[in-house]
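Letters spell out the chain; the tokens describe the backbone. To illustrate:

===
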Amino acid sequence: MDTSGLSVLDQRIAGCRACPRLVDWREEVARTKRAAFADWTYWGRPVPGFGPPDARLLIVGLAPAAHGGNRTGRMFTGDRSGDVLYQALYDVGLASQPTAVSADDGLELYGVRVTSPVHCAPPANKPTPTERDTCRSWLVQELGLLRPTLRAVVVLGAFGWQAALPAFAGAGWTVPRPRPAFAHGAHVTLDATEGPGLDLFGCFHVSQRNTFTGRLTPEMLRDVLRTAAGTAGLPKA
């Protein structure tokens, strides 16, 4: 397995300037900053995936947060959504620590990689359909590089689900027709023309809207992660 492939892809993603609106927004946020992070040098670029190149489980979100990943340069790092996600990954034995505050905080993921279908922070957390489709090729390439070991995917939220299904097809898995609908706890097996299939799981997004209202509880998130990890053949706490 060529483990250097993902490193090269990550570098290419970080240099992408394909979507003018997203480029303008992420760089404006990096210049103006939030008062609480005035002493930070913001990343202000597309945020690549995070995790080992031989991951058996992939977690797919939506897009980096303006003052989270766009600030720290790492997926789900430095924001409330990441606090919830990495705590849950730690609880089920898939992360080395329960917090993610910066790209150099020592966090390691065990057999898990985290990515998103849109790599730039979008205004109001809402990429346009054109921006989503423009960014899809990066996810297709990432899936292709992970394919030798990847066995399961957890998709966070309906946007990620809808954006990821065409990427799975583009990377060589067969998506059923009609396309499976998103739901929390949904489980779909995607067959492949060559090699093993892929187990796809749906989970409500770890957004503050969902976690603060109790629509997604820590227990619900842990349950999905445990099930997906077991399906992927990963040990879990």
